[in-house]
# Entry
Amino acid sequence: MANVRELKRRIRSIKNISQVTRAMQMVASSKMRRAQEQALGTRPYAAKAWQVLSHLAGQYGSNERLHPLLTHRGVIRATGMVLITSDKGLCGAFNTNVLRTAVHYMQGLGHPCQVITVGRRGRDFMARHGARLTAVFTDLPPRPTSLDITPIARAAIDDFLEMKVDEVYLVYTDFINTLTQRPTVRRLLPITPGEVESSVMREYVSTGPQTGPAGEYIYEPDPQSILGTVLPRFTELQIYQAVLESLASEHSARMVAMRNATENANTLIGNLTLVYYRARQEAITKEMLDIAGGAEALRQAG
# Structure
């Protein structure tokens, strides 16, 4: 059994760790509430923007004539991926799950894949495993704006328009609730009008049967001009929404992980305290036996 001094030192060390994890839990809880409000507040706008785009692009003939971002290429020679992870760790299996999903998807492609990483964890992982990184973005602000996302969208759009990749996918974590976050792979480019792939935004888009033929609207100046402005902003909006979902998922996962760490530390402190008292009692008993034995020896000698 460990000595009393060592047990006391271990208990003090674990108490210090539990105080740190408790503080991190409180900080993550505060950040989580703000991130959730921001992610939930933009979902209806992102989903309705997709619905408007679907209607606009679906009314006219060839999508290739409307805008290059709608062009579907017959032969896929290379795929681009925008991978969103966190800059920091201590958030449970958040990064592990999304990285595992990304690797599994890349292995099933059968052709080269170029990666744009958002977050240090994704950058470090992909660099260690020899993936081709075309752009790296780190240190996004706690409450990002569309201006912070514009360089990411620009990098993905330029790779697609310059024929470096024939399709671009978005890999991130959908925020379901505080205890559930789901890694998601979504097509970003070419933009395919149709059903919203993100499960958390489908509730905002009407997918029921049409009761009659869809009306054809008149656009000024013309659909091509409107799409030329809307499509790049729409691509940026999808990345922005994915970043917000990922931030809400990260803070939720970190809060849960720190709460579990605090509870485990308290449990361990309780177990070690019991062992400490037993060791202390055993040491006291041995000292009493030694004193009693010495007294008995003195008595017999006298």
Observations:
- The CA atoms of residues 244 and 259 lie 23 Å apart.
- The domain at 22-205+218-256 is CATH 3.40.1380.10 (Pyruvate Kinase; Chain: A, domain 1).
